[in-house]
Design a protein that fits this description.
The chain is of the alpha+beta class and 285 residues long. Helices cover 20% and strands 45% of the residues. The strands form two sheets. Strands 1, 2, 3, 4, 5, 10, 11, 12, 13, 14, 15 and 16 form a twelve-stranded antiparallel sheet that branches. A four-stranded antiparallel sheet has the order 6-7-8-9, with no helix packed on it. Strand 6 and strand 7 form a beta hairpin.
Length: 285
């Protein structure tokens, strides 16, 4: 009798250990999955401009749940110095060549436009007067001097107009547009300007995100400023739609309700084994 009692107790201890281990592993895996689904880290990355003349330059972009935004960046600043939580939509990043005469205009989208106001001749070359507008209202203008003698496609005699504005979401000297003028031609009957690079952000509709702001199902939990070019900053969001869990319950279950540890093939096998052992033990008495 003592022999079977000892065996029964040993088997019981073994089965309890297995069952406990099985539940612990499942609970741990479920907890890890829940934590992973609750946190979303959106990193700022550097993107090359489409315009070939700016191929050695980059601008910051952050992907927020499938939509790309451009963190505001001051003129001459590095990407790591971008304002991670002050974002504007990207309107245009193009290397398309536009051939324009005086008075012609490029519709840039979202109410923005670029117009050729004047093309003039001078001693060293030519000048083009460009005006940047939004909803028909003046924003900025610039006279750009260009050597119009050489109009080849591979000409390195080019100019870039960088439009910077103050008080964009409280920040100054923010780059909102870049225009690359490749070449000019000034004739007796017709004058032409070639523009082969335009980059523009929707600065007028930029927004500032603060801790606690909601973005769809997510809430902004942390703003991480840039450290260097390889780590230019990030935004950390928490998914508030995923239920929290505590020690009183397991992920995905209501607190205070324990999991059903008797289900599953392993615990079923353990129950059958224990029944067999106890029946064998009774038959020996």
């Amino acid at each position: 009798m003592k022999k079977y009692t000892i065996v029964s107790l040993a088997a019981l201890t073994f089965l309890i250990a297995i069952a406990a281990g099985t539940v612990s592993a499942a609970d741990t895996l479920s907890a890890a999955d829940t934590v992973s689904s609750r946190v979303n880290v959106c990193n700022v990355v550097g993107i090359n401009y489409e315009c070939g003349s700016w191929s050695n330059e980059q601008y910051p972009v952050i992907d927020l749940f499938g939509d790309e935004y451009v963190p505001l960046l001051a003129n001459h600043d590095d990407i790591r110095e971008a304002h991670v939580n002050k974002l504007a939509g990207l309107v245009l990043d193009s290397n398309e060549t536009y051939t324009l005469e005086k008075g012609e205009k490029i519709d840039l989208g979202r109410g923005y436009a670029l117009e050729v106001r004047q093309i003039t001749d001078n001693i060293d070359g030519g000048k083009v007067w460009l005006e940047f507008t939004r909803d028909g209202q003046h924003v900025a203008d610039q006279n750009i001097s260009v050597d119009y003698q050489n109009i080849s496609v591979d000409s390195e005699n080019n100019k870039t107009w960088t439009v910077v504005l103050d008080n964009v979401q409280g920040e100054n000297d923010i780059v909102v547009m870049k225009v690359h003028v490749r070449q000019l031609f000034v004739g007796t009957e017709k004058s032409i300007v070639w523009i082969n690079g335009i980059w523009l952000i929707d600065y007028a509709n930029a927004r500032t995100l603060n801790i606690g702001d909601e973005f769809g199902e997510f809430t902004l939990e942390e703003i991480i400023s840039g450290v260097d070019e390889s780590n230019p900053g990030s935004l950390v969001f928490k998914n508030v739609s995923v239920a929290d869990f505590s020690s009183s319950g397991t992920p995905g279950k209501e607190p205070g309700k324990s999991a059903d540890k008797s289900t599953g093939p392993l615990t079923s096998w353990c129950r059958d084994l224990w029944t067999c052992i106890t029946m064998k033990s009774k038959s020996t008495f």
